[in-house]
Design brief:
The complex is a heterodimer of chains A (315) and B (125). Chain A contains 13 helices and two strands, in the order ααααααααααββααα. By secondary structure, chain A is mainly α. In chain A, strand 1 and strand 2 form a beta hairpin. Chain A starts with a helix and ends with a helix. In chain B, a hairpin with a 6-residue loop joins strand 1 and strand 2. Classes of the chains: A mainly alpha (315), B alpha+beta (125). Bound molecules: fe (ii) ion (2 copies). Chain A: One of its GO terms (biological process) is phenylacetate catabolic process.
């Protein structure tokens, strides 16, 4: 068969909603796109633990601490599901991780913002996990089987994340004046970066078309962002708070909320490495990896010893 | 505003100097770590049901693979039993041969109960 015949057949499968599995033939560019997307998605889960990890030891109660710990632990699991899915495409785990540590691979820019108060943990759960969920619900139907299955697993766990965040904010919004102010302040700081999580406007990004054709992505950045705005504009009312956008307004004709312009200069700045915490995040990841070296060595030594003992027993 | 980056993958992650992928691992890690094998994890969600593939992970040996699998795949009581098997021991049919490989079954419609038209009087068969 000629290579274009392979490609035609591949596209027919995609069009017929047949999932692509690891051993199936796939165009090189499809494989490459997936390796990048899945590994960077995995990195986002892992680096995403850092801003929240900052508050585990300072959570206001034992209950909140246990919840946050469980949430952050989930994110580590999400990283693992995704690294495994990525591996099915034929790339070694070490290389994926090295790419993160060398700064070669990226992660979502949202995690380069600092968590200044406890209310930020609430805002992250509600807004950042909320935005991630919309992306991930879409990806449950992505064309690559292992990626789609990882997403289904992840989405099941995510809804607790968003709820616990909203619950934190709801408690603060019913608290003292100082707590209310803290709540609004966190929303003000996290709102715009959360909108940026969906990526640049459709008119500014080129590879969406190919990803849509391959059904890796199934909704455009702008579609997802609009969905997010519509959702949050309603939910914020329950909190008796406001979103920091004076242009936010229901548009009856469109049946959607209109919203103000995003500061793309800020976005590009963070993407290029000049966000408030870019260096700190990467340094923390590298340190964790280096400090864990002895654990990995010990595990390998222990496994060797155990294998040895079994051999002696068997002999 | 710099907009020289026009390709994006997951959400807002740009394709500027992102990993190329598909090269063999180059790592400064010790050989031990690089050689931690990959394990496939199978989980029985409830007594009486089959074990089902849940995912994979790296671990130094089977015992640790099972412990890690418990930590990642059963945080919400998803399982009552875990199997792990080193990925290299899994043999799979070839998807390229799927058509001819499964073809022998496709013309044997009489293997299905719906093939037989019985009189109304024969109920619940
Ligand atoms: Fe997650
Ligand atoms: Fe999450």
């Amino acid at each position: 068969m000629q290579s274009h015949q392979f490609e035609n057949r591949f596209q027919q499968k995609i069009d017929a909603e047949t999932k692509i599995e690891p051993k199936d033939w796939m165009p090189d560019a499809y494989r490459k796109t997936l390796i990048r997307q899945i590994s960077q998605h995995a990195h986002s889960e892992i680096v995403g633990m850092l801003p929240e990890g900052n508050w585990i030891s300072r959570a206001p109660s034992l209950k909140r601490k246990a919840i946050l710990l469980a949430k952050v632990q989930d994110e580590a699991g999400h990283g693992l599901y995704l690294y495994s899915a990525c591996e099915t495409l034929g790339i070694a785990r070490e290389e994926t991780i090295n790419d993160l540590h060398s700064g070669k691979a990226k992660y979502s820019s949202i995690f380069n913002y600092p968590t200044l108060t406890w209310a930020d943990i609430g805002a992250i759960g509600w807004l950042v996990d909320g935005a991630a969920i919309l992306n991930q619900v879409m990806l449950c139907r992505t064309s690559y089987g292992p990626y789609a299955r990882a997403m289904v697993r992840i989405c099941k766990e995510e809804s607790f994340h968003q709820r616990q965040g909203f619950d934190i904010l709801l408690t603060l919004s019913n608290g003292t004046e100082a707590q209310k102010t803290m709540c609004q302040d966190a929303i003000n700081r996290w709102w715009w970066p959360s909108l940026m999580m969906f990526g640049p406007k459709d008119s500014e990004s080129t590879n969406s078309d190919q990803s849509m054709k391959w059904k890796i992505k199934r909704k455009t950045n702008d579609e997802l962002r609009q969905q997010f705005v519509d959702m949050c504009a309603e939910q914020v009312k329950v909190l008796n708070m406001v979103l920091p956008d004076k242009d936010l307004q229901w548009n009856a004709a469109r049946q959607h909320y209109d919203f103000g312009g995003i500061d793309w200069n800020e976005f590009w700045n963070v993407v290029k490495g000049n966000g408030p915490c870019n260096k700190e995040r990467l340094a923390a990841r590298r340190k964790a990896h280096d400090d864990g070296a002895w654990v990995r060595e010990a595990a390998a030594a222990y496994a060797a010893k155990r294998a040895n003992k079994q051999e002696i027993k068997a002999a | 505003m710099q907009q020289f980056i026009r390709k994006f993958y997951y959400g807002d992650i740009p394709d500027d100097i992102s990993g190329e992928g598909l090269k063999p691992a180059q790592t400064g890690e010790s050989a031990e770590e690089a050689s931690w094998p990959l394990w496939e994890v199978f989980i029985r969600s409830k007594q009486g049901l089959d074990h089902k593939h849940a995912g994979s992970l790296h671990a130094a040996d089977a015992q640790m693979a099972i412990e890690n699998a418990r930590d990642v795949y059963t945080r919400r009581n998803e399982g009552v039993s875990i199997w792990v098997v080193e990925s290299k021991y899994i043999h799979a049919s070839n998807p390229d041969d799927a058509e001819s490989f499964y073809e022998p079954a496709s013309d044997k419609v009489y293997r299905h109960p719906t093939f037989y038209e019985l009189p109304e009087a024969v109920r619940n068969m």
